[in-house]
Amino acid sequence: MRIEAITPRRPRLFYGWVLVLLTAVRGSINVGSYFVNSALVVPMQAELGWSRPLLFGVLTVRNLLMGAISPFVGPIGDHRWLPKLVFPVSTVLLGVSMMTVKWVQAPWEFYLLQGVVGAVGMALTGNAVLNGLIAKWFVRKRAKAIMWTNVGPGTGPLIFPPIVAALVIMVGWRDTWFWMGVITTLLLAPLSFIAHTRPEDTGTGPDGDPIGHVAGAAGRGTPGIRATASFTRPQAVRTRAFWLISTAGALATFGVQGYQVQWLPYLIGDRGFSQQTGANGVLVYGVFTVCARFFWGFWSSRYATRYVLLAQGLAAGVGVLFFMTVQSTPMLFAWAVWQGLCLAGFFQLQALLLMDYFGREHLGAITGFVLPLSTVSSASAPLLLSLLRDVTGTYTLAFGIVAAGWIGCALLCGVTAQPRPRSSSTTAGAT
Description:
By secondary structure, this protein is mostly helical. The chain folds into 2 domains: about 15-205, Up-down Bundle (Growth Hormone, Chain: A); about 220-420, Growth Hormone, Chain: A, CATH 1.20.1250.20. It has helices at about 15-50, 50-75, 80-100, 105-125, 125-135, 140-150, 150-190, 235, 240-255, 255-260, 265-270, 275-300, 305-325, 330-340, 345-360, 365-390, 395-415. Helix 2 (about 50-75) runs parallel beside helix 4 and helix 13 packs antiparallel against helix 14. It is globular and about 60 Å long. The two termini are about 40 Å apart. About 50% of the residues are buried.
């Protein structure tokens, strides 16, 4: 009787792509939630009599709280079983934080639900956790995986505003909050219960290769292993690269959310465009910011990530300067295409750079320490830029600072060389 060796079969669908789908959907919802708040400000203000700073202030509270707790939730993505528990909890918190706004009567209730409960729900499966998971499942195809996960956030501005607008007309703002919570829960629940932390738990190695398989040759910007060692969080924090990447991230986030919320006031109030034309320009931006995920994914799979980040940051800064010169509709749409392609590409590239430089074993914990500085910068930008506009009477200084921030971000990324492990112990978790 002949006994044949049994070779494990590679699954038809590598589970890492399921996690990519989960990350993309959650990213779309996380970004889309900001547009839900924005779209519902006017009807809420009309019924409740609250000021716009009060209504928008909940986003600042949420961002600051997410930044404060991200160092504590980041290690969740590095744990073997915590994601299976935390993902469903996060889904419930996000759904409840939206559904229960239907019954708010006082500002403290709104801030508790959206500013606190919503912040915890988002942070539990925020970038620190999800990027840490993706890093463990992909090595050779990491650039492609990050590209697809970042398609999700890009769709948020395209998907959610039309849905919210239609619901407000049909059922009013209170029931719109309720149904957005239901939609969020239904979208995330199926994927939240099937999370695995690392490919070895499903019988495969990274990229779906057999366990122990070493793929390709190491190299910057080439297929194959993209990092030589996995740093622990204390080891990463002691490197120069960690602080350069963190500072670059803070400059970039200042030049995204705070800059974006000024677009329509600037186009309509300062440049004389109609409401519809300004909105159409932002819509064109939204279309091309989705395309940008593929654009930067292509280049990051071929060249060293830090040099791609250098190009992206310089292009984003040029886009801000271009925006300051927009005077006609063709110029507006040309700017929207350019800015859409280059503005938000930073975030997928930064995530890829962190994976490249610090490995996959402790990335959740490391990313959790990167986010607080970026979150404070993002939360303060809308207020600071608006204040500069009121003090000077124009957006020239405000947008000039944004452009300078992007250029500074680009230069920091360009000089951020890959850190070297200081001892052999750092290579224990080699990618």
